[in-house]
């Protein structure tokens, strides 16, 4: 008995999306009237802790996320966002309130 095929014979497998794989795939998006460069990062590629500007929570190493910066700012102004926070950036308030014991970095 041969193993079951999950795709019909002769069907091409869909190409991997660079956004999901986290390799390359930098694109641009418009937000607040400015062009932003957005690059997905795979979980295995992240090795440091980052603070998400969308929710003010920590992004631990090994968690996939998005790096975004304004096109004219350059790489020094990159910000690391949770994917969900980046997708919900238009629905968030402009000022996120920290809890009393949250670190200030």
Automatic annotation (TrEMBL):
It comes from Actinacidiphila cocklensis. Residues 1-10 have a biased composition (Basic residues). This is ATP/GTP-binding protein. Residues 1-34 are annotated as: Disordered.
């Amino acid at each position: 008995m041969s193993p079951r095929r999950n795709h019909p014979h002769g069907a091409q497998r869909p190409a991997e999306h660079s956004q999901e794989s986290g390799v390359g795939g930098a694109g641009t998006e418009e937000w607040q009237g400015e062009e932003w460069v957005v690059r997905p990062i795979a979980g295995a590629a992240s090795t440091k802790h980052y603070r998400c500007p969308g929710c003010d929570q920590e992004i631990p190493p090994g968690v996939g996320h998005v790096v975004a910066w304004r096109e004219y700012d350059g790489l020094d102004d990159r910000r690391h966002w949770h994917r969900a926070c980046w997708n919900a950036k238009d629905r968030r308030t402009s000022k996120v309130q920290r809890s009393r014991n949250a670190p200030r970095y």
